[in-house]
Specification:
Pfam families: CO_deh_flav_C (PF03450), FAD_binding_5 (PF00941), Fer2 (PF00111), Fer2_2 (PF01799). Residues 174-346 form the FAD-binding PCMH-type domain. InterPro entries: 2Fe-2S-bd, 2Fe-2S-bd_dom_sf, 2Fe-2S_ferredoxin-like_sf, 2Fe-2S_ferredoxin-type, 2Fe2S_fd_BS, Ald_Oxase/xanthine_DH-like, Beta-grasp_dom_sf, CO_DH_flav_C. Helix content is 34%, strand content 21%. The protein contains 18 helices and 20 strands. The chain has helices spanning 25-31, 88-95, 105-113, 123-129, 141-159, 187-196, 209-216, 250-256, 261-268, 273-278, 281-286, 294-300, 318-321, 343-347, 396-402, 409-422, 433-452, 463-467, and strands at 5-9, 12-16, 50-54, 60-64, 77-79, 172-176, 179-183, 201-203, 222-225, 235-238, 241-245, 304-308, 314-317, 322-324, 327-328, 335-342, 349-354, 365-374, 377-386, 393-394. It has a five-stranded mixed sheet with strand order 2-1-5-3-4.
Length: 468
Amino acid sequence: MSATIDFTLNGAPRSVAGLPPTTTLLEYLRAAGLTGTKEGCAEGDCGTCTVAVRDAAGTLRAVNACIMLLPMAHGCAVTTVEGLEDHPIQREMADRHASQCGFCTPGFVMSLWAREPGEPADRQAITDRLAGNLCRCTGYGPIIEAAEVSAPAADALRSGETAAPARPAPGLDYEADGRRYIAPTTEAAFAEAAASHPEATILSGATDVGLWVTKRLFDPPAIISTRSVAGLDAIEERGGTLVVGAGARLSAFARAIAGTAGIAELMRRFGGLQVRNAGTVGGNIANGSPIGDLPPALIAAGATLELGHRDGGRTLPLEDYFIAYGRQDRRPGEYVRAVHVPLAGLAQLACHKVSKRFDSDITAVLGAFALTLDGGTVRDVHLAYGGMAAIPKRAAAAEAALSGRPYTAETVAAAAEALAEDFSPISDMRASSAYRLTVARNLLKRDFIERTDPAVATRLARAADVAA
């Protein structure tokens, strides 16, 4: 276990000691004079702070430096825009006037640079890759054109590089300013640390905790990271069940379920690429957010949750994990270990996300519905919602109105009315209570149309979708 934060920055080795563990990578970079990486929102939304990180396993990812804590760079290779030398994407961005004020440009360049050779570079793939980058000057047209035109030359350039061999993620036990950051390499060591320090904050991707640091000035005495725990990020199929390790990144989970239409579309709209590259499945569950996108979908699919502990683990239905706002069924020293998702439930699942922006936005209402029909009759139904209550929650009254009845517009309309028995949503900056209830009802009706008449267009298409 190292006591210093060791990584490479634009090819040069760095070893850090003495800085608080909650120092962000962005703060470190700018203090080091690498000011091409900008601070815009300080919450992982605008992408102006995007850098590329290659981890010990060799995976290259575009990430938000503004919410990535510096110790998370341990054992990684970090590349900023200053580390590029006349790259094809830089030339095309300049030649096509894809930069105006220039503030956001380095972030765009780094998001596009962090694409491995052979990864898709068509118009749709590029717009998905740039969903976590905001530009308010030029618009996206010339930026997308620059990305498309530069892709072949960028692939050829990257193909000539010698890939570093994959290696186990290194451990870290770092102390500074009276604060401690522990990154164990085995689950046994992680479980011991979690049990010995129940007051510690468990950190995975920092897409939530990072905001606590930048917005609330959160300064925990101890952090225990999942990032280096071998095997905690595994995703595998076991006898009709997809077992997803808590440390699996959202982007890896998205690839694993890419062939399952219902949840694949949800994952495509889950934050921006930088958020999906950092955030984890376990983190999205463990933080207990009432507007987290994954829990309603996994609840509707019939998922169970596996909790770990030094003294032995346990499993429970995922829906039972959420007790009340800010309260989950997790005892001192316990941690989310894995989620078990029935493939049959995923196959029946449809997800409906409503937000103010199509891409990279927090959900106002999310409906996730899994139905099994038998001769036109509803035999099994799971309706789960996010944004409608203090926790992600099933709609028991609406389910009762559907179960055992003919799957007709009249039955669905009755189930939609029953949602008023299930939820009394709040009003906030994202949506009013009345709006949320109306939308929740309409999502049930839209789901009915999609299941019974799939030729009807019910989903919003972006310009890129139409152009393709």
